[in-house]
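Dear all,

This email documents one entry for the complex benchmark we are building for the journal club exercise. For each entry we list the sequence lines for every component of the assembly. Then comes the predicted three-dimensional structure of the complex as a token string, followed by one or two observations. Please use this as the template for your own entries, and keep the labels exactly as they appear.
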Amino acid sequence: MGMQRESWRALGTGVHVLVSDGDMTAASAAVRNVLADVDRTHSRFRPDSELSRINADSGRWRTISPLLADAIAAALRAAEITDGRVDPTVGRAMRAVGYDADFEQVRTRTDPISIQLEPIPGWQAIRFDRRSRTLGVARGVEIDLGSIGKAFASDMAASAALSASGRGGVLVSLGGDIATAGDAPAGGWRVLVSEDSETPPDADGEVVVLRDGGIATSGTTVRAWKRGEVTLHHLIDPQTGVSAYSPWRTASVVAASCVDANTAATAAIIFGASAPEWLEGLGLAARLVATDGSVLRIGSWPRAARVA
Amino acid sequence: MKSAIRLTAAERDRAMRRLRDLTVGTAVASIVAMAGLGTVAAASNSGSTADSGTTTAAAAGSTSGSTATLGSTSTSSSSGLAAATTAPTTTSGNAHVSSGSS
């Protein structure tokens, strides 16, 4: 049956589903269902989402849905592993730097913004009993699942698509956060590593081949906006409470899952100068692009076969 | 003026037995409550999950509605991020998709 492909937009970003030797219709439907569930549960911009209701009424215990519980568990794990560099309690800081609506709205505002710096509560302000799905968030703390939420959705969608497809292999890209499941096609899954996930896959650039796992790219240049003379972006440094100042503008990581890849990529931006050592210590394949455009390949990341 | 209640020896013994039973029952209930509270406190440890060793795959295993379980590609645990089973390679061919920031 060969490779089939379907693309659309959801969660404010591009969705691409590739199926190798399987049922594309069933796979696509499964991905759409996952993304609809994720949107209803995790969205920070839907006032009726489960997460928005929790953020609007913090300071008490509640039982949360299985889907949100899974995402919270993934976010807390990421925070623990990165020693708080990837922290889900940056919701207020995200609003403070102007990211308080859908990104299409955020990028149109150009007037100067007055930012009141506040300490980030830190992931320890979240109390969570995984077994009973009981969540306690300190009063005033706002959870933002941000990039982890997207990677988490990619992993789930790929798995759901494979189950629905019945055989072969599946790749799901959600805004450039890519998860695979099942058997890779002959020649593997070929991924263009780019600054912007909207770059056409046939554009010039570095192409890596995956057989399993996931790949994610975090960066400071795409989801960025200018307020007055200051450029801000969505990667909040929990130590400062504002957009991270990093020597890296883009970090791409290959890992066993998209969540792990995204966690490492985002943390690498925040870690800054110590990111290469941290990534090497974890044994991850990574590609860092410095603000001057120079590229640093880490671990088993291959040397480029074709660069524009 | 109240008059003293006079009990028979049998009634006194019965009352003493009841008081002892109540004392023992209260002690047992206190121990059970302490154990229960300790369990809840440990499970709701600040900022972490009760199943701290739960893998991402297992964490995503219980889903709602139409969502499905996560595949077996993830082998990560709370102790660290896991590398893919197969290291990435490179090719000069066209890509299927792009990974980038969004």
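Observations: Chain A touches chain B through 113 residues (CB under 8 Å). The first strand of chain A starts at residue 3 and ends at 10.
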